């Protein structure tokens, strides 16, 4: 652990759905930061660090919870605790994406986009 910043130093929020995705996200950090005092209303567990010049806060959905509602709850608590977040990422393995109608293979990058009343979350 390198040093401790304050909550407002973090501008990138990263939400992972699975523990294996959290481990991969943690490995992407150039530097890991010391934990900050918890907010009593926030149930998330955070990993803090930096990638290049960007201070990043990472959280994972609670074990056994999946779906957009759980992801939204984690993101909402994260944004409430880390008010300076300007960029939000939901990065995952996309295991449910391949289908006979879509040619998506291991190693492909899939980016969702909101369209026609859908939020863009796959």
Automatic annotation (TrEMBL):
SUPFAM superfamilies: Purine and uridine phosphorylases
MF term (GO), any: catalytic activity
Highest rank taxon of the organism: Eukaryota
A GO biological-process term: nucleoside metabolic process
InterPro entries named among the record's database cross-references: NLR-like (IPR053137), Nucleoside_phosphorylase_sf (IPR035994)
Keyword Signal: yes
Signal peptide positions (record): 1-25
UniProtKB keywords: Signal
Protein name: Nucleoside phosphorylase domain-containing protein
Species of provenance: Lasiodiplodia theobromae
